[in-house]
Specification:
Order of helices and strands: HHHHHHHHHHHHHHHHHH
Shape: globular
Bound molecules: zinc ion
Distance between the termini: 20 Å
Number of domains: 2
Number of helices: 18
Oligomer: single chain
Length: about 375
Protein backbone atom coordinates (compact mmCIF):
# COMPACT_ATOMS: atom_id res chain seq x y z
CA UNK A 1 0.00 0.00 0.00
CA UNK A 2 1.49 3.38 1.00
CA UNK A 3 4.93 1.92 1.70
CA UNK A 4 4.98 -0.30 -1.42
CA UNK A 5 4.10 2.77 -3.50
CA UNK A 6 6.96 4.75 -1.93
CA UNK A 7 9.35 1.87 -2.62
CA UNK A 8 8.25 1.57 -6.22
CA UNK A 9 8.45 5.31 -6.87
CA UNK A 10 11.93 5.87 -5.43
CA UNK A 11 13.60 2.47 -5.53
CA UNK A 12 15.44 0.70 -8.31
CA UNK A 13 17.47 -2.46 -8.82
CA UNK A 14 20.87 -0.74 -8.69
CA UNK A 15 23.19 -1.25 -5.72
CA UNK A 16 22.72 1.06 -2.73
CA UNK A 17 26.41 0.97 -1.77
CA UNK A 18 28.57 4.01 -1.15
CA UNK A 19 29.46 5.84 -4.40
CA UNK A 20 26.35 4.72 -6.31
CA UNK A 21 24.38 7.91 -5.74
CA UNK A 22 21.91 6.16 -3.41
CA UNK A 23 23.07 7.78 -0.18
CA UNK A 24 23.37 11.22 -1.77
CA UNK A 25 19.89 10.78 -3.27
CA UNK A 26 18.42 9.81 0.08
CA UNK A 27 20.19 12.74 1.79
CA UNK A 28 18.94 15.14 -0.87
CA UNK A 29 15.35 13.94 -0.52
CA UNK A 30 15.64 13.93 3.29
CA UNK A 31 17.07 17.45 3.55
CA UNK A 32 14.68 18.75 0.89
CA UNK A 33 11.74 17.30 2.78
CA UNK A 34 12.95 18.78 6.10
CA UNK A 35 13.54 22.25 4.63
CA UNK A 36 10.19 22.31 2.85
CA UNK A 37 8.37 21.17 5.98
CA UNK A 38 10.21 23.72 8.12
CA UNK A 39 9.29 26.59 5.76
CA UNK A 40 5.66 25.44 5.89
CA UNK A 41 5.87 25.60 9.70
CA UNK A 42 7.09 29.21 9.46
CA UNK A 43 4.13 30.06 7.19
CA UNK A 44 1.46 28.30 9.22
CA UNK A 45 2.70 28.18 12.81
CA UNK A 46 -0.81 28.17 14.25
CA UNK A 47 -1.74 24.99 12.42
CA UNK A 48 1.58 23.16 12.17
CA UNK A 49 3.70 23.98 15.20
CA UNK A 50 3.30 22.40 18.61
CA UNK A 51 2.02 25.01 21.10
CA UNK A 52 4.19 23.67 23.95
CA UNK A 53 7.37 23.99 21.90
CA UNK A 54 6.77 27.40 20.28
CA UNK A 55 8.12 29.59 23.10
CA UNK A 56 11.34 27.55 23.35
CA UNK A 57 12.59 27.74 19.76
CA UNK A 58 15.91 29.47 19.08
CA UNK A 59 14.43 31.06 15.93
CA UNK A 60 17.68 32.50 14.54
CA UNK A 61 19.53 29.17 14.78
CA UNK A 62 16.61 27.39 13.14
CA UNK A 63 16.67 29.85 10.23
CA UNK A 64 20.38 29.17 9.67
CA UNK A 65 19.64 25.43 9.85
CA UNK A 66 16.85 25.73 7.25
CA UNK A 67 19.23 27.59 4.94
CA UNK A 68 21.88 24.86 5.36
CA UNK A 69 19.30 22.15 4.65
CA UNK A 70 18.26 23.83 1.39
CA UNK A 71 21.88 24.13 0.24
CA UNK A 72 22.63 20.52 1.28
CA UNK A 73 19.55 19.19 -0.56
CA UNK A 74 20.66 20.85 -3.81
CA UNK A 75 24.30 19.80 -3.32
CA UNK A 76 23.52 16.11 -2.71
CA UNK A 77 20.85 16.19 -5.42
CA UNK A 78 23.44 17.26 -7.99
CA UNK A 79 25.88 14.54 -6.85
CA UNK A 80 23.22 11.84 -6.94
CA UNK A 81 21.91 12.80 -10.36
CA UNK A 82 25.45 12.55 -11.74
CA UNK A 83 26.09 9.13 -10.14
CA UNK A 84 22.76 7.35 -10.47
CA UNK A 85 20.66 6.33 -13.43
CA UNK A 86 17.29 6.69 -11.72
CA UNK A 87 17.06 10.32 -10.65
CA UNK A 88 13.75 10.33 -8.75
CA UNK A 89 15.37 10.78 -5.32
CA UNK A 90 17.69 13.56 -6.47
CA UNK A 91 14.93 15.39 -8.34
CA UNK A 92 12.55 15.09 -5.39
CA UNK A 93 15.18 16.55 -3.05
CA UNK A 94 16.07 19.41 -5.36
CA UNK A 95 12.43 20.23 -6.18
CA UNK A 96 11.53 20.33 -2.48
CA UNK A 97 14.51 22.61 -1.76
CA UNK A 98 13.55 24.88 -4.69
CA UNK A 99 9.94 24.96 -3.50
CA UNK A 100 11.15 25.83 0.03
CA UNK A 101 13.19 28.72 -1.42
CA UNK A 102 10.31 29.89 -3.62
CA UNK A 103 8.07 30.01 -0.54
CA UNK A 104 10.48 32.42 1.11
CA UNK A 105 13.09 30.03 2.52
CA UNK A 106 14.50 30.70 5.93
CA UNK A 107 13.52 34.38 5.95
CA UNK A 108 9.74 33.93 6.15
CA UNK A 109 8.41 36.23 8.84
CA UNK A 110 6.19 34.74 11.50
CA UNK A 111 3.18 37.06 11.54
CA UNK A 112 1.19 38.06 14.56
CA UNK A 113 0.98 36.23 17.81
CA UNK A 114 0.29 32.54 17.85
CA UNK A 115 -1.97 31.05 20.47
CA UNK A 116 -2.53 27.49 21.73
CA UNK A 117 -5.09 25.11 20.31
CA UNK A 118 -4.95 21.92 18.34
CA UNK A 119 -2.04 21.68 15.93
CA UNK A 120 -0.65 18.94 13.74
CA UNK A 121 2.84 19.07 15.24
CA UNK A 122 4.81 18.97 11.99
CA UNK A 123 7.66 20.85 13.72
CA UNK A 124 8.08 18.09 16.33
CA UNK A 125 7.99 15.38 13.67
CA UNK A 126 10.67 17.11 11.56
CA UNK A 127 12.91 17.95 14.50
CA UNK A 128 12.69 14.50 16.03
CA UNK A 129 13.29 12.75 12.71
CA UNK A 130 16.28 14.99 12.00
CA UNK A 131 17.85 14.60 15.45
CA UNK A 132 17.24 10.86 15.71
CA UNK A 133 18.68 10.18 12.26
CA UNK A 134 21.63 12.43 13.07
CA UNK A 135 22.40 10.56 16.31
CA UNK A 136 21.55 6.94 15.50
CA UNK A 137 22.29 6.40 11.80
CA UNK A 138 26.05 7.16 12.16
CA UNK A 139 26.26 4.93 15.28
CA UNK A 140 24.64 2.06 13.42
CA UNK A 141 26.82 2.56 10.37
CA UNK A 142 30.05 2.71 12.40
CA UNK A 143 29.44 -0.12 14.88
CA UNK A 144 26.62 -2.36 13.68
CA UNK A 145 25.86 -5.69 15.34
CA UNK A 146 24.43 -6.95 12.05
CA UNK A 147 26.51 -5.21 9.33
CA UNK A 148 24.68 -6.89 6.45
CA UNK A 149 21.37 -5.42 7.57
CA UNK A 150 22.14 -1.90 6.30
CA UNK A 151 20.22 1.30 6.96
CA UNK A 152 17.69 0.65 4.20
CA UNK A 153 16.73 -2.87 5.21
CA UNK A 154 13.51 -4.47 4.02
CA UNK A 155 10.46 -2.71 5.50
CA UNK A 156 12.30 0.49 6.40
CA UNK A 157 9.80 2.64 4.50
CA UNK A 158 7.01 1.06 6.55
CA UNK A 159 8.75 2.12 9.73
CA UNK A 160 9.11 5.67 8.41
CA UNK A 161 5.33 5.64 7.91
CA UNK A 162 5.00 4.50 11.55
CA UNK A 163 7.34 7.25 12.67
CA UNK A 164 5.06 9.73 10.90
CA UNK A 165 1.90 8.20 12.26
CA UNK A 166 3.02 8.48 15.88
CA UNK A 167 4.48 11.95 15.49
CA UNK A 168 2.14 13.92 13.26
CA UNK A 169 -0.97 13.38 15.38
CA UNK A 170 1.06 14.21 18.47
CA UNK A 171 -1.20 17.09 19.33
CA UNK A 172 -4.26 14.93 19.04
CA UNK A 173 -2.67 12.20 21.15
CA UNK A 174 -1.16 14.67 23.52
CA UNK A 175 -4.49 16.37 23.83
CA UNK A 176 -5.68 13.11 25.33
CA UNK A 177 -2.58 12.09 27.21
CA UNK A 178 0.55 14.17 27.18
CA UNK A 179 -0.64 17.71 27.59
CA UNK A 180 -3.16 17.01 30.34
CA UNK A 181 -0.50 14.94 32.09
CA UNK A 182 1.96 17.79 32.40
CA UNK A 183 -0.76 20.34 33.10
CA UNK A 184 -2.60 17.98 35.40
CA UNK A 185 0.24 17.92 37.91
CA UNK A 186 -1.54 21.02 39.25
CA UNK A 187 -4.82 19.19 39.80
CA UNK A 188 -3.90 15.55 40.46
CA UNK A 189 -0.68 16.12 42.33
CA UNK A 190 -0.64 14.96 45.93
CA UNK A 191 0.75 18.02 47.77
CA UNK A 192 2.57 16.06 50.50
CA UNK A 193 4.25 13.87 47.90
CA UNK A 194 5.06 16.82 45.65
CA UNK A 195 6.70 18.69 48.51
CA UNK A 196 8.68 15.67 49.60
CA UNK A 197 10.02 15.03 46.10
CA UNK A 198 10.66 18.71 45.38
CA UNK A 199 13.02 18.84 48.37
CA UNK A 200 15.29 16.17 46.86
CA UNK A 201 18.26 17.05 44.65
CA UNK A 202 17.29 17.37 40.98
CA UNK A 203 19.21 14.29 39.90
CA UNK A 204 17.56 12.11 42.54
CA UNK A 205 14.11 13.37 41.50
CA UNK A 206 14.90 12.44 37.92
CA UNK A 207 16.21 8.99 38.87
CA UNK A 208 13.13 8.33 40.98
CA UNK A 209 10.90 9.40 38.07
CA UNK A 210 12.63 6.90 35.78
CA UNK A 211 12.17 4.11 38.35
CA UNK A 212 8.47 4.93 38.87
CA UNK A 213 7.93 5.18 35.09
CA UNK A 214 9.67 1.89 34.40
CA UNK A 215 7.70 0.00 37.03
CA UNK A 216 4.48 1.40 35.52
CA UNK A 217 5.75 0.51 32.04
CA UNK A 218 6.58 -3.00 33.22
CA UNK A 219 2.98 -3.74 34.15
CA UNK A 220 1.32 -2.16 31.15
CA UNK A 221 3.85 -3.95 28.92
CA UNK A 222 3.12 -7.25 30.70
CA UNK A 223 -0.60 -6.71 30.11
CA UNK A 224 0.06 -5.95 26.42
CA UNK A 225 1.67 -9.40 26.17
CA UNK A 226 -0.70 -11.44 28.36
CA UNK A 227 -4.15 -10.04 27.55
CA UNK A 228 -5.05 -11.45 24.11
CA UNK A 229 -7.03 -8.36 23.05
CA UNK A 230 -4.13 -6.04 23.92
CA UNK A 231 -1.55 -8.36 22.35
CA UNK A 232 -3.23 -7.81 18.96
CA UNK A 233 -2.06 -4.18 19.13
CA UNK A 234 1.36 -4.86 20.64
CA UNK A 235 2.08 -7.64 18.12
CA UNK A 236 2.66 -4.89 15.56
CA UNK A 237 5.69 -3.70 17.54
CA UNK A 238 7.00 -7.26 17.67
CA UNK A 239 6.54 -7.91 13.96
CA UNK A 240 9.93 -6.40 12.92
CA UNK A 241 12.19 -9.13 11.60
CA UNK A 242 15.25 -6.92 12.04
CA UNK A 243 15.79 -4.17 14.59
CA UNK A 244 17.27 -0.72 14.30
CA UNK A 245 16.53 2.80 15.53
CA UNK A 246 13.50 3.31 13.32
CA UNK A 247 12.09 -0.19 13.96
CA UNK A 248 11.45 1.09 17.48
CA UNK A 249 8.75 3.41 16.17
CA UNK A 250 6.76 0.55 14.67
CA UNK A 251 3.97 0.68 17.17
CA UNK A 252 0.19 0.74 16.94
CA UNK A 253 -1.17 4.08 18.15
CA UNK A 254 -3.36 2.30 20.74
CA UNK A 255 -0.21 0.62 22.13
CA UNK A 256 1.61 3.96 22.19
CA UNK A 257 -1.23 5.84 23.87
CA UNK A 258 -1.75 3.15 26.51
CA UNK A 259 1.94 3.02 27.44
CA UNK A 260 2.29 6.80 27.59
CA UNK A 261 -0.86 7.10 29.66
CA UNK A 262 0.16 4.44 32.17
CA UNK A 263 3.65 5.89 32.54
CA UNK A 264 2.47 9.46 32.97
CA UNK A 265 -0.35 8.74 35.41
CA UNK A 266 1.86 7.88 38.42
CA UNK A 267 4.38 10.59 37.48
CA UNK A 268 1.67 13.22 37.70
CA UNK A 269 1.04 12.46 41.36
CA UNK A 270 4.32 13.69 42.72
CA UNK A 271 6.73 15.04 40.11
CA UNK A 272 7.07 18.56 38.74
CA UNK A 273 6.39 19.44 35.11
CA UNK A 274 10.11 19.96 34.50
CA UNK A 275 10.98 16.46 35.73
CA UNK A 276 8.20 14.91 33.64
CA UNK A 277 9.42 16.79 30.58
CA UNK A 278 13.02 15.66 31.24
CA UNK A 279 11.73 12.10 31.52
CA UNK A 280 9.86 12.38 28.20
CA UNK A 281 13.07 13.46 26.46
CA UNK A 282 15.03 10.68 28.18
CA UNK A 283 12.54 7.95 27.28
CA UNK A 284 12.45 9.07 23.64
CA UNK A 285 16.23 8.80 23.39
CA UNK A 286 16.64 5.65 25.48
CA UNK A 287 13.76 3.64 23.96
CA UNK A 288 15.04 4.42 20.47
CA UNK A 289 18.56 3.49 21.52
CA UNK A 290 17.54 0.06 22.84
CA UNK A 291 16.28 -0.92 19.37
CA UNK A 292 19.52 0.11 17.63
CA UNK A 293 21.58 -2.23 15.49
CA UNK A 294 24.60 -1.40 17.64
CA UNK A 295 27.16 -4.03 18.64
CA UNK A 296 29.52 -2.66 21.33
CA UNK A 297 28.50 -3.22 24.90
CA UNK A 298 29.72 -1.88 28.23
CA UNK A 299 29.54 -5.02 30.38
CA UNK A 300 29.57 -3.14 33.68
CA UNK A 301 26.67 -0.93 32.57
CA UNK A 302 24.33 -3.48 31.06
CA UNK A 303 23.43 -4.90 34.46
CA UNK A 304 21.96 -1.58 35.53
CA UNK A 305 20.72 0.03 32.35
CA UNK A 306 18.93 -1.53 29.40
CA UNK A 307 21.31 -1.70 26.44
CA UNK A 308 20.38 -2.74 22.87
CA UNK A 309 21.27 -6.42 23.40
CA UNK A 310 18.84 -6.63 26.35
CA UNK A 311 15.83 -5.27 24.47
CA UNK A 312 16.78 -7.32 21.41
CA UNK A 313 16.16 -10.41 23.56
CA UNK A 314 12.66 -9.05 24.18
CA UNK A 315 12.12 -8.97 20.41
CA UNK A 316 13.43 -12.42 19.57
CA UNK A 317 11.16 -15.15 18.22
CA UNK A 318 13.26 -17.80 20.02
CA UNK A 319 11.16 -19.81 22.49
CA UNK A 320 13.46 -19.43 25.48
CA UNK A 321 12.99 -15.67 25.58
CA UNK A 322 9.28 -15.22 24.83
CA UNK A 323 7.63 -12.92 27.39
CA UNK A 324 10.94 -11.88 28.96
CA UNK A 325 12.65 -8.51 29.53
CA UNK A 326 9.65 -6.19 29.81
CA UNK A 327 11.52 -3.29 31.45
CA UNK A 328 12.66 -0.48 29.19
CA UNK A 329 15.18 1.22 31.47
CA UNK A 330 16.34 -1.07 34.29
CA UNK A 331 16.99 -4.82 33.83
CA UNK A 332 16.80 -5.38 37.60
CA UNK A 333 13.05 -4.70 37.47
CA UNK A 334 12.70 -7.89 35.39
CA UNK A 335 14.93 -9.69 37.90
CA UNK A 336 12.62 -8.70 40.75
CA UNK A 337 9.53 -9.96 38.91
CA UNK A 338 11.16 -13.10 37.48
CA UNK A 339 11.08 -12.22 33.80
CA UNK A 340 14.81 -11.65 33.28
CA UNK A 341 16.59 -13.43 30.43
CA UNK A 342 20.02 -12.29 29.32
CA UNK A 343 22.53 -14.77 27.87
CA UNK A 344 25.99 -13.70 26.71
CA UNK A 345 25.27 -13.74 22.97
CA UNK A 346 22.80 -11.91 20.71
CA UNK A 347 19.56 -13.51 19.50
CA UNK A 348 19.51 -15.15 16.08
CA UNK A 349 15.92 -14.49 15.01
CA UNK A 350 13.50 -11.64 15.50
CA UNK A 351 9.81 -11.16 14.98
CA UNK A 352 6.59 -12.93 15.93
CA UNK A 353 6.73 -16.60 16.89
CA UNK A 354 4.20 -18.74 15.02
CA UNK A 355 2.02 -15.79 14.14
CA UNK A 356 1.70 -13.46 11.24
CA UNK A 357 0.21 -10.01 10.76
CA UNK A 358 -0.76 -8.09 7.61
CA UNK A 359 2.24 -6.75 5.68
CA UNK A 360 1.07 -3.15 5.32
CA UNK A 361 0.51 -0.20 7.61
CA UNK A 362 -3.19 0.31 6.92
CA UNK A 363 -4.25 -3.25 7.65
CA UNK A 364 -1.88 -3.45 10.62
CA UNK A 365 -3.73 -0.44 12.03
CA UNK A 366 -7.25 -1.79 11.41
CA UNK A 367 -6.85 -5.55 12.03
CA UNK A 368 -6.31 -5.44 15.81
CA UNK A 369 -9.68 -3.69 16.28
CA UNK A 370 -11.66 -6.22 14.31
CA UNK A 371 -9.59 -9.26 15.33
CA UNK A 372 -8.77 -10.28 11.76
CA UNK A 373 -6.08 -12.97 11.82
CA UNK A 374 -3.64 -14.14 9.20
CA UNK A 375 -2.58 -17.74 9.10
CA UNK A 376 1.20 -18.21 9.02
ZN1 LIG B 1 6.76 -6.31 24.06
ZN1 LIG C 1 10.79 -2.78 21.34
Amino acid sequence: MIEQKINKFFGDAESSGFGTGWWSGILSAFFGFLSFGAVLCLHFPQLLSTPDLRPHYPVHTLRVLIQCLIVAAIFFGVISSILRKKKTLALTGMLLAIAATALGGSSVQVNGSVHGGLAIGLDWFLLDLFLMALIYVPLERLWPQYPKQGTFRKDWTQDVVYFMSTHLPLQILSFLVLLPATQATKYFGVPVLQELIARMPWLLQFFLAVVVADIAEYFVHLALHKVPFLWRFHAVHHSSKALDWIAGSRSHFVDDTLVRGFILAPLMLGFSQTIILAYLIFVTLHATWTHCNFGPNAKWLEKFLVMPRYHHWHHTSQKESIDKNFAIHFPWIDKIFGTYYFPKEWPENYGLAGEEIAPDFLRQTIDPFIGRKRTP
